[in-house]
TrEMBL record:
Enzyme class: transferase
Source organism: Guptibacillus hwajinpoensis
Residues the record lists as binding substrate: M45, G194
EC numbers for this chain: 2.7.1.50
GO biological process, one term: thiamine diphosphate biosynthetic process
InterPro entries assigned: Hyethyz_kinase, Ribokinase-like
Gene that encodes it: thiM
CC cofactor: Mg(2+)
The organism's taxonomic lineage, starting at the top: Bacteria, Bacillati, Bacillota, Bacilli, Bacillales
The protein's name in its UniProt record: Hydroxyethylthiazole kinase
Metabolic or biological pathway: Cofactor biosynthesis; thiamine diphosphate biosynthesis; 4-methyl-5-(2-phosphoethyl)-thiazole from 5-(2-hydroxyethyl)-4-methylthiazole: step 1/1
Amino acid sequence: MDKTQAASLISNVREVSPLVHNITNTVVTNFTANGLLAAGASPVMAYAHEEVADMAKIAGALVLNIGTLTNEVVEAMLLAGKAANEMEIPVILDPVGAGATPYRTATARRILKEIDVQYLRGNAAEIANIAGKKWAIKGVDASEGPRNRDSLASKAAMMFGCTVVVTGEIDTISDGSTTIHLSNGHPILTKVTGTGCLLSSLLGAFAAVEPDSLLAAYGALAFYGVASELAAEQTGNRPGSFQIELLNQLSLVTPTQIEENIR
Ligand code: ATP
Ligand code: TZP
Ligand code: MG
Ligand code: MG
């Protein structure tokens, strides 16, 4: 993967400022909108059945996040997803908490079946549970399992016909034939809720400006990982300060800093 090209994608996001339509959870709505703005994208949250299709059609990407599901929200996701598919707008699915309850697992699978999803981004337990492998999940947080993330990511990518991003200490991206790893990031990301959800929405912003799925995912993860490292450097072990500083660094980090620090 070309590091220079991947690191430069944030400049395209800042220049184009793509509209990212999020149907997301009630926990992370404000943080997600602020994170997208900080990165240079343009966020919108819209849920009404009367407008979701219209909004999805004018967006650069649609992000579906099942964190606080209701049947009404699921129907909104399907309406928006179908509209996005018609217009060939990339759709990102964050299957928050899949595996924790049968409803979440079934909903994630239903969306993958009925909508042409370009990216599936979650922790290892979520992806494994959707793919039908038992892996313990505590609420919305992954518990570490011994299984091989490479084979999990590539099998899930083939099973669902999309690019799969499995995050954690090491991030794994696979389209079923090529698998890439990144080890940027910082453990304090696990102490702030919504850092995974924000990443999924940022993936939407990158997908809106770069059609190559692997490149866009690599660029988004490198951008986010390096920004989080810079933020942690500034704030130490303080989740509250880190959450704010992450927003600052999402707006400040440069392509050169990203390229020099991709691991
Ligand atoms: P979980 O609920 O399991 O925390 P999530 O949806 O919040 O899942 P994460 O896997 O935490 O998603 O990924 C969000 C970001 O945090 C990614 O950029 C990932 O690289 C980073 N990250 C997660 N865990 C670590 C870690 N231990 N060390 C460094 N970075 C991490
Ligand atoms: N409960 C339902 S959604 C949500 C919680 C705590 C937020 C999960 O955010 P993330 O990004 O997966 O940590
Ligand atoms: Mg996390
Ligand atoms: Mg999550």
